[in-house]
Design brief:
It contains 8 helices and 17 strands. By secondary structure, the protein is α+β, with helices and mostly antiparallel strands. The structure holds flavin mononucleotide. The site of flavin mononucleotide (FMN) has 21 residues, from strand 3, strand 5 and helix 1.
Length: 326
């Protein structure tokens, strides 16, 4: 391997790219695109953004001592780029890009409604570094888009399609390749999963029930979905989601082997290519299996439904309870 030495410059990538909104009292709000942004303290939660003095937003933030960092996802990257090449001196960026000011809870500067996460900040210190002034600010409020909250009130930030900036180009996040601390996590043995699905004809909701037997003993999970593109598969859609959840759990928790007990034959036949996956849901299931099959050894075991298999009955009840079906 040979290396080349360059003169000093900014090569720290990838970076977040964010839309920072700000406002002077009595004036229109403005948005500036910022890549020189970072988290700098957890307690109190603090962030920094660096802005050159020439920017219209620089003076607004300097004077008002507040701004909102709006995270940028795929849907917002076009306006974000626009806000990074046009100045609020010349255009109303909210108007031009059809963005909606979102009233903040703790400061006067509005956020951007279309962003999945709005981080309200109050400036504590400004350091004049050279080309850029660094605004060090405390986070005083965070607003998140409800669409990405699951029923356990967990926010799926990585499902929002966040964008990163690297060496002049924008990218969405790629494949998940690990998890905090996974390098020191002990490899676990085998996880046994019982999955079943249910369907509510009245609401068109479907669900899975899942019983896992692994290092932590027996654990029970269930989740319901309301997805028109999959609901035509009724309870099978739920059972597929259950099998995906079992694979995901096994992978996230460092299991090397997973044995899935199921009662609908497609659960094994689609991933093992014994049936052709034609529908969106079955194709996605097979693709998910293919992605992880070399990382975890997955074995499928068919259970005949309603024959008194304890854990299969348990998974069936969990799925039904999730939909309020007796
Ligand atoms: C991807 C991207 C990242 C940027 N990052 C910064 C930054 O970190 N700091 C900065 O001062 N300007 C940055 N800019 C430039 C400003 O966003 C740009 O000059 C903008 O038009 C300023 O708007 P304003 O005059 O309304 O404040 C960036 C632009 C883009 C496209």
């Amino acid at each position: 391997m040979s290396k080349e030495t360059w003169k000093p410059g900014n090569m720290l990538y990838p970076l977040p790219v964010v839309c920072v909104s700000c406002k002077r009292p009595g004036e229109k709000p403005n948005i500036i695109t910022i890549a020189w942004a970072g988290t700098i303290c957890s307690n109190p939660p603090m962030v920094s953004i660096s802005i050159t003095k020439q920017r219209y937003s620089h003076d607004i933030i300097w004077e008002t001592k507040e701004f909102v960092i709006n995270l940028v996802n795929k849907d917002l990257i076009y306006p974000c780029d626009y806000c990074g090449v046009k100045s609020g001196r010349d255009v109303d960026k909210f108007k031009e890009m059809n963005l909606t000011p979102l009233k903040s809870k703790n400061i006067e500067a509005p956020g951007i409604k279309e962003s999945p996460v709005n981080i309200e900040c109050k400036v504590k210190q400004i350091i004049e570094l050279g080309s850029h002034d660094m605004f060090i600010a405390e986070v005083v409020g965070v607003t998140v888009e409800n669409e990405y909250m699951d029923e356990n009130n967990k926010f799926s930030l990585n499902e929002t399609g966040l964008v990163t900036y690297s060496h002049g180009e924008y990218f969405t996040l790629g494949e998940k390749i690990g998890k905090f601390g996974y390098s020191v996590r002990k490899n676990k043995g085998k996880l046994v999963a019982y999955v079943d699905g249910s369907y509510n004809v009245a609401t068109k909701e479907f669900s899975y029930g899942m019983v896992l037997i692994g290092d932590l003993g027996t654990e029970q999970f269930s989740k319901k979905f309301n997805d028109e593109s999959l609901s035509s598969m009724r309870n099978v859609a739920g059972e597929i989601k259950g099998a995906e959840a079992a694979i995901s759990y096994a992978y996230d928790n460092g299991y090397k082997e997973l044995e899935i007990y199921y009662d609908y034959e497609g659960i094994a036949k689609w991933p093992l290519s014994q049936w052709k996956a034609n529908k969106e849901g079955t194709k996605a299931y097979k693709a998910y299996y293919d992605k992880l099959k070399d990382k975890i050894k997955i074995k499928f075991n068919k259970v005949i439904a309603h024959t008194g298999d304890k854990y299969n009955e348990m998974a069936d009840k969990l799925a039904k309870d999730e939909l309020g079906i007796k």
